[in-house]
Design a protein that fits this description.
Layout lengths: L7 H29 L13 H18 L10 H8 L4 H27 L5 H13 L1 H25 L3 H12 L5 H11 L29
């Protein structure tokens, strides 16, 4: 969290972006699950199989996970948004953030150095991978903690935000004054497209694909 005093209007605006990003995150998690479960076995041009692809997918959904709780002032941090839109779950939101916050810097660095920008500094690249792998179990737990809370709030959405589609109408019209009624409705459908609720608390929500051990870099 960045301790922002968001208005309800601003929180709703960011919530729309969160819903899209959550869908993308869940899509990548599902792909990882399917590969791990060998529902399909992709192979690259050299004939290397599913484990190779698991690494790539793992990079992708780790980057998406990081983007849900960014500390940069121009980026999304959904915990601030949740506090405004789900005040009845304030204590649980804060407790979950307290569990995840110690790992946010590590996850952000991995996203920045490895996933999104491929930093050209060889030593920094290797050291970042090693630090992340050294905390891989903790990162998986953080993803699961986030997933449990996201699932709960998603299930609460019809009750906590019963007029969501109506509330976002003036927000979209203010942001897109040149759009027709039909286009505004299209935007609503895009942002509010169904996101299947995550599994209930107590079940594994995500499992980060582990990098093949014999290919793990070692920093010296």
């Amino acid at each position: 969290m960045r301790q922002r005093n968001l208005s309800r209007e601003k929180a709703l605006e960011e919530y729309l972006i969160y819903r899209v990003r959550l869908r993308e995150f869940l899509d990548m998690v599902q792909i990882a699950r399917d590969i791990k479960g060998r529902k399909y076995e992709p192979r690259d041009f050299a004939g290397r199989g599913p484990d190779r692809f698991s690494d790539t997918v793992g990079h992708a959904f780790t980057g998406l996970f990081a983007s849900l709780m960014d500390l940069h002032q121009a980026a999304l941090n959904v915990f601030d948004v949740w506090l405004v839109l789900f005040p009845g779950k304030r204590d649980k939101i804060k407790k979950t953030w307290a569990k995840i916050e110690p790992l946010v810097g590590l996850i952000r660095d991995y996203r920045n150095v490895i996933v999104c920008h491929a930093n050209k500094g060889l030593r920094l690249y290797v050291e970042t991978v090693c630090k992340f792998q050294g905390k891989s179990k903790e990162v998986v737990t953080a993803m699961q903690e986030f997933g449990h809370l996201a699932a709960e709030l998603r299930r609460d959405e019809p009750t906590a935000l019963p007029t969501l589609r109506t509330e976002i109408d003036p927000i979209l019209r203010a942001k897109f004054p040149d759009h027709s009624d039909e286009q505004i409705e299209g935007l609503k459908s895009y942002f509010l497209a169904h996101t299947k609720p995550l599994r209930r608390t107590g079940q594994r929500v995500v499992s980060h694909p582990k990098t093949t051990r014999n290919r793990s870099p070692r920093a010296k």
